[in-house]
Amino acid sequence: MTHKIFVFFALILCFTACKTEPTSPFKALDLMDNGVPITIMAPDSAQVSTDDLIVMQEVSIRKGDDYFVQIRYSDAAGTASVAALKAEEITDAKRDPFFTEIIQDDTAGFIYKTQLDSTRASYGFRYIKLQGDKEYRFRNGIIGAFSEEATRAMYEGVQQ
Q1: Is the pLDDT of residue 6 over 50?
Q2: For the domain that residue 66 is a member of, what is the CATH number?
Q3: Which of 18-32, 41-55, 145-159 has the highest mean pLDDT?
Q4: pLDDT confidence of 8, banded at 50, 70, 90?
């Protein structure tokens, strides 16, 4: 009986040790050099650019056609309520004439679907982060049509 238990635990140890985690195509990207004290997960060698939009700043991170994240932030948060900021983002997303539905709704963000025509759908996301007295609004880039898979990857990547 002891021999069987030993073999059983040895097999479990072997399977556990041999198990490999899938590797993510994304790597940590520290945005501190761009004025944003945040790290997100992004494709290796993604291009980062910054813009001053007068009332707020914007950092764009882009790689190919499947990854485009924009982060808008201001010097002081308008409110300390993530729920209120998220409600603003939902209202903004619903203004899109192609908006169809919210497909994932979380405390600080959401993923939504737009129907471009009868055969093509696109997906987008919004995510809010309050850090100190600053608010950070993450979204997919406004140029491009993104698959649900690409949108989910971007959404998960900004939540780091």
Answers
A1: no
A2: 3.40.1000
A3: 145-159
A4: very low
d(CA 12, CA 69): 42
| Phi-psi group of 86: left, alpha or beta (phi > 0 → left; psi -120 to 50 → alpha; rest → beta) | alpha
- pTM of this prediction exceeds 0.85: no
Tokens 């009868």 correspond to 118
Model confidence at 2, in pLDDT bands (50, 70, 90)? low
The rounded distance, in Å, linking the Cα atoms of 66 and 116 is 17
- What is the DSSP-derived secondary structure letter of residue 23? P
Residue 2 structure tokens: 């002891």
pLDDT over 90 percentage in the chain? 62
Q: Would residue 19 count as lying in a domain?
A: no
Reference 67, options 159, 6, 129, 155; nearest CA is 155
| Domain count within the chain | 1
Containing structural domain, residue 69: 25-158
How far apart, in whole angstroms, are the C-alpha atoms of residue 38 and residue 6?
Answer: 48
Task: Write the CB contacts of 94 (distance below 8 Å, at least 6 apart in sequence).
Answer: none
Q: 2 phi and psi, to 5 degrees?
A: -65, -35
Indicate whether 68 belongs to any domain: yes
Q: Give 102: exposed, middle or buried? Use CB within 10 Å, 0-12, 13-18, 19+.
A: middle
